Amino acid sequence: MDYLETNRANWNARVPIHVSSAFYDVEDFTASGRSVLRPFEVAEVGDVSGRRLAHLQCHFGLDTLSWARLGAEVTGLDFSPAAIDQARRIAAGCGIRARFVTADVYDAAEALGETYDVVYTGIGALVWLPDLTRWAETVAALLKPGGFLYLAEFHPFADILDDETGTKVTHDYFARGPQVWEEPYTYTGGELAEHRTSVQFQHGLGEVVSAVAAAGLRVEFVHEHDRTLFRRFATLADDGTGYRLPDGAPKIPLMYSLRAAAPAT
């Protein structure tokens, strides 16, 4: 199976469903001027005013445009032409100047042809990539001297637990082979009429950190977070800042964030 073309078809099919969903609420995003970034991301990245930021695997660009609303000069890249078409449309509707490019993430350095102060990749991105070494090398090639990668992701520890309670180990943390999924619904709740197959790849936290370090980037921090963006397990409760286990229950890592800098010279 060609994982890239399979996943591209799957994501092209998701785009119209996602754009029209209440989950993304593109109409309100356009009209209200709001940001969809998580507060911890904004705090950990810091002031982006006047800085050039590339968002890899940007989907249709709401995170990308949120960084622009904070003052960054943004470029978004995604392998789905349907997503990039929508990103350009939404940017125009918001009156935001942004560049969006269609390309596979592994071709980003050549496709973008420039370097950046910040390379950002958002939540749920790495599972679509089979080779993190190549990904990290691509990130390093995109960074200016002294620039940095910022990654926010779902924690791989949560993927070993049972879906219902999140208390029993039922999956292999070290499983790395491609996983083929046949799913009729997207995470927004919409039903896919076609192209329901996707291919995903699990990556442990050590694999991510090692790939980033091997690419010559200096890891500044890895922060683990005890909350996530959706009810990953039925036992999670919404406390207003995300979904986490109730007070009194032992906490587990549900998300993590990483920042790593390129050499200054």
CATH architecture: 3-Layer(aba) Sandwich
Task: Please state how the strands of the largest beta sheet are arranged side by side.
Answer: 3-2-1-4-5-11-8
Task: Identify low-pLDDT runs.
Answer: none
**CATH fold-type name:** Rossmann fold
Task: Count every helix, treating DSSP H or I runs of 4 or more residues as helices.
Answer: 8
Shape: globular
The succession of helices and strands, N to C, reads HHHEHEHEHEHEEEHEEEE
Category from helices, strands and their pairing? alpha/beta
**Head-to-tail CA distance between termini:** 42 Å
* Mean residue pLDDT: 95
**Radius of gyration from CA coordinates:** 18 Å
CATH superfamily: Vaccinia Virus protein VP39
In CATH's first tier, which class applies? Alpha Beta
Fraction in helix: 25-40%
Largest sheet, strands/sense/barrel = 7 strands, mixed
- The proportion of strand residues reads 15-25%
Number of domains: 1
Number of strands: 11
Account of the protein in words:
The structure is a single chain. The protein is α/β, with parallel strands linked by helices and 265 residues long. Helices cover 30% and strands 23% of the residues. Strands 3-2-1-4-5-11-8 form a seven-stranded mixed beta sheet, with helices on both faces. Helix 1 packs parallel to helix 5. 33% of the residues are buried. InterPro entries: Methyltransf_12, SAM-dependent_MTases_sf. Keywords: Methyltransferase, Transferase. One of its GO terms (molecular function) is methyltransferase activity. Pfam families: Methyltransf_12.
